[in-house]
Design brief:
By secondary structure, the protein is of the alpha/beta class. It has 8 helices and 10 strands. Strands 5-4-3-6-7-10 form a 6-stranded mixed beta sheet, with helices on both faces. Strand 8 and strand 9 form a beta hairpin. It is elongated, with a radius of gyration of 23 Å.
Length: about 290
């Protein structure tokens, strides 16, 4: 069991690593991609050529004899929920990091981007049920707690239910929120719950894949173990026919999940466990900013 001082040190290291990335690259793109919920009046200024005449204050112009424009500020504060899959399948990783390790860093980056832009951020850690819930806030102590929970929470179950997390959010979110589902999406029958959640909230699927899950290396006879179902299967990874069938099934499953998410009007960010995650995220934010 780790000592509190060790937990604090590792939490700070996670924050330092992700904050550098946020400050240098991601924060500005995040702000452009996710704008406020409305505009509020802030002040008047004198009209200049090219201003929208619809914003002229005619009563003020009548009193002063000069045209003035109403100024509006964006209501910036948003509510962001990070729903992170900590089921057994995310513990897999063929390189230096497991999928869960990478998802933790992605979630930390999104959390710090939200906080930097004055938004509230909350956290859900889920398997086949919601194992941990941290309501949205934005103070310093809260973000430290969130990062610590991300890095060190130990799941009680192995299986996955994205629907359970989506249904839970339906009950706890009282205002429109941005919801990030960070998962490998090795789950079934979640489309209806995600689609219902997306009718009220802005939902983004962050999908993490390890390259060995779609392209097995030639290692001879290998005993594969499913960490969620705990089933075991002996396969010949040197067999070209087996590898072809395996890859085809994986691609079909991936495409079906993609169609399910798109059919639920969910945006998708695809990430690889073997590659840096920040470029796909920045590219997604930039595309999204252009649509708005």
């Amino acid at each position: 069991m780790q000592k509190p001082a060790d937990l604090l040190k590792q939490t700070r290291l996670l924050e330092i690593r992700t904050r550098k990335l946020v400050d240098s690259v991601i924060s500005g793109e995040y702000k452009t991609a996710f704008r406020g919920q409305g505009m509020t009046f802030s002040d008047f200024r004198e009209y200049v050529a090219g201003d929208d005449i619809r914003h002229i204050s005619w009563p003020l112009m009548a009193r002063t004899g000069k045209p003035f424009i109403k100024k509006f500020d964006e209501e910036r504060e948003l509510q962001v929920m990070l729903c992170v899959d900590i089921s057994g399948s995310t513990a897999f990783g063929s390189g230096n990091f497991s999928k869960r390790d990478k998802l933790v860093h992605v979630a930390a980056t999104l959390a710090l981007s939200a906080i930097k832009n004055g938004d509230e951020v909350g956290l859900i850690l889920f398997t086949d049920f919601v194992e941990h819930y941290l309501p949205p806030k934005k103070n310093r102590g809260h973000i430290q707690r969130l990062l610590r929970d991300l890095a060190f929470f130990e799941p009680k179950h192995n299986r996955t239910s994205i629907a359970s997390a989506a249904d839970f959010l339906q009950g706890v979110l009282k205002k429109k929120s941005i919801v990030f589902f960070l998962s490998d999406f090795m789950d079934q029958e979640f489309q209806a719950s995600i689609k219902l959640l997306g009718k009220k909230h802005d939902v983004v699927a962050v999908r993490m894949e390890d390259e060995f899950e779609s392209s097995l290396p030639s290692l001879g006879l290998v005993e594969l173990w499913d960490p969620e179902s705990e089933e075991e299967l002996l396969v010949d990874t040197s067999s070209a026919e087996f590898k072809k069938i395996f890859k085809g099934l994986r691609q079909k499953e991936w495409q079906e999940k993609t169609q399910e998410l798109k059919g639920s009007l969910v945006d998708i960010i695809d990430l690889s466990n073997q590659k840096d995650f920040y470029k796909p995220i920045v590219q997604f934010f930039a595309r999204r900013g252009q649509r708005r």
